C-alpha cells in the first residue's frame, strides 16, 4: 500500500476503503498492493432441507497478469496491525458488496474474521455496523465466523461477538476441535453455529474410535444449543459419514468447489436425495442390527428365563447364550438396578481379558440403574431391549447390551447379555 496507516484504526474507515473497490458489471473487485481481489463463494448445504442455506465468502487474489495468487501470500503482505485490520475490512467490504447483488436474497453469507482483528483497538469493529447500513444487507443474513487463532484478550473477543449479535448477525466458531477452538470457547462465546475442523473428519475416515468421537462431539454441541457444520467433505464416504454423524450442514469439494463465477454458483447443485437414499439403504443393512439381534437371541433369552424361574442356577440357565461367539457376559439385575450375582464371562472372552482392567471385573452388587437399557427393561417387562454400541466399563471395549425384564416370584428381574460390538456383523451374516 502506498498510504501510511496509523497503528490503530479505531474509527470507521469506509471512506478510506471505498476508492479501493471497483465495479465490473454486476460484480466488484478490490485493489490491494498491486493485487486484484475477487470474491469466491462456496455453497453450504442443509442435509435435512436438501438445499443450499448459505455461502462462505473467500478472497481470491490475482496479480497484474491475472494469474491466481495463493490467499496465504495475500495475508502475509500486511506489515502492521493497522494494515492487517484494513485488509480484513477490505475483504469483508468486497464480499458484502458482491453479495448484495447476488441472485440469492434469502440465505446466509459466512464471513471469516480473525480474533486478532476482532479484538484490535477500542470498538475496532464498529465499522461493520456502518458497512451493513451503507450496503443495505440485512444483518440477519450474515454469519460472522471467528477463525481459530489464539487471542490474549478473551473479554474483548466476547464483547465483540456480543456486538455482532446485537447487530442481528449470527456467529460461528470455525475449526472446532483444533488448536484453541474447544468447548471453553463454546461456553465463552455461545455461538449459533459450530464448524468442525476437517481433521476430525479425516481421522474419523481412518479410525472407528475417531468416528464415534465425532458423533459424540456433534451430540454434545447440539445439547449446547449449537447447530453443527462439517466442512472439508471431499468424498462420498465422508459425505455418508457426515449424514451418520448427525451434522446439520455440510460444505466441501464433494458438494461444490468455491467459485468466483458468482452467477453460476447455484447451477449443478448437489443431489442430496441420492446421498440420503444411499445412507438409508446402507443403514438398513449395516447400521441398525436391532431387529436381527432380537430375532437371533430372543429364543435363547426366553429359554434362559424359563430355566431361571424353575430354579436352575445362572450358569446352567445361560449356557446357550454364553456359547454364542458374539456374547461376552451375562448378568442378572433386580428391579432397583442392582446386580444379584457376579457376572458370568464366556469362555471365548475369558482368555482374552485385559489384566489392566482387572479392578473392574468383579461386578457383584454393582448398580446399573443409570444405564438406559436397564431402565427401559424395567419399564417394559417381557420386551427385549437392544442398545447402540457403547463402551463397556468392565472391559473397556465397545459392546451392545441385550436386556429383558421378567417376573420371578412376584418380583421383577432383568437378564442382561453383553455382545462384542465388532462381532455384530458376523451375527447378522449368520442370521
TrEMBL record:
Q: Name one Pfam family in it.
A: EAL
- Output the Gene3D superfamilies linked to this UniProt entry: EAL domain, PAS domain
CDD domains per record: EAL
Q: Which residues form the EAL domain?
A: 20-272
Molecular function terms from GO: cyclic-guanylate-specific phosphodiesterase activity
Q: What is this protein called?
A: EAL domain-containing protein
Question: Where does this protein come from, organism-wise?
Answer: Marinobacter lipolyticus SM19
Amino acid at each position: 500500500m502506498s498510504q501510511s496507516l496509523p497503528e490503530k484504526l479505531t474509527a470507521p474507515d469506509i471512506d478510506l476503503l471505498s476508492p479501493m473497490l471497483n465495479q465490473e458489471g454486476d460484480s466488484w473487485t478490490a485493489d490491494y498492493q498491486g493485487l486484484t481481489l475477487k470474491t469466491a463463494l462456496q455453497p453450504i448445504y442443509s442435509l435435512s432441507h436438501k438445499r443450499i442455506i448459505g455461502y462462505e465468502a473467500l478472497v481470491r487474489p490475482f496479480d497484474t497478469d491475472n494469474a491466481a495468487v495463493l490467499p496465504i501470500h495475500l495475508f502475509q503482505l500486511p506489515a502492521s496491525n493497522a494494515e492487517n485490520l484494513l485488509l480484513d475490512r477490505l475483504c469483508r467490504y468486497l464480499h458484502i458488496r458482491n453479495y448484495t447483488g447476488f441472485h440469492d436474497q434469502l440465505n446466509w453469507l459466512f464471513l471469516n474474521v480473525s480474533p486478532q482483528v476482532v479484538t484490535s483497538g477500542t470498538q475496532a469493529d464498529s465499522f461493520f455496523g456502518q458497512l451493513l447500513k451503507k450496503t443495505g444487507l440485512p444483518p440477519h443474513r450474515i454469519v460472522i465466523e471467528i477463525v481459530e487463532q489464539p487471542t490474549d484478550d478473551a473479554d474483548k473477543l466476547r464483547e465483540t461477538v456480543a456486538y455482532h449479535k446485537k447487530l442481528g448477525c449470527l456467529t460461528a466458531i470455525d475449526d472446532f476441535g483444533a488448536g484453541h477452538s474447544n468447548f471453553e470457547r463454546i461456553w465463552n462465546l455461545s455461538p449459533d453455529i459450530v464448524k468442525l475442523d476437517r481433521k476430525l473428519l479425516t481421522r474419523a475416515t481412518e479410525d472407528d474410535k475417531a468416528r464415534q468421537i465425532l458423533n459424540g462431539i456433534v451430540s454434545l454441541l447440539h445439547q449446547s444449543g449449537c447447530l453443527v457444520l462439517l466442512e472439508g467433505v471431499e468424498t462420498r464416504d465422508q459425505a455418508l459419514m457426515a449424514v451418520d454423524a448427525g451434522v446439520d450442514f455440510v460444505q466441501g469439494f464433494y458438494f461444490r468447489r468455491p467459485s468466483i463465477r458468482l452467477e453460476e454458483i447455484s447451477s449443478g447443485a448437489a443431489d442430496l436425495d441420492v446421498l440420503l437414499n444411499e445412507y438409508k439403504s446402507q443403514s438398513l443393512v449395516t447400521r441398525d442390527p436391532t431387529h436381527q439381534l432380537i430375532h437371533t437371541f430372543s429364543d435363547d433369552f426366553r429359554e434362559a428365563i424359563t430355566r431361571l424361574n424353575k430354579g436352575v442356577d445362572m450358569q446352567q440357565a445361560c449356557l446357550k447364550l454364553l456359547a454364542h461367539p458374539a456374547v461376552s457376559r451375562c448378568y442378572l439385575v433386580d428391579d432397583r438396578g442392582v446386580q444379584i450375582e457376579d457376572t458370568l464371562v464366556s469362555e471365548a472372552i475369558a482368555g482374552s481379558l485385559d489384566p489392566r482392567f482387572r479392578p473392574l471385573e468383579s461386578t457383584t452388587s454393582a448398580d446399573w440403574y443409570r444405564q438406559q437399557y436397564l431402565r427401559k427393561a424395567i419399564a417394559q417387562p417381557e420386551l427385549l431391549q437392544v442398545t447402540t454400541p457403547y463402551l463397556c466399563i468392565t472391559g473397556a471395549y465397545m459392546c451392545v447390551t441385550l436386556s429383558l425384564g421378567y417376573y420371578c416370584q412376584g418380583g421383577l428381574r432383568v437378564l442382561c447379555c453383553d455382545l462384542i460390538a465388532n462381532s455384530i456383523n458376523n451375527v447378522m451374516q449368520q442370521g
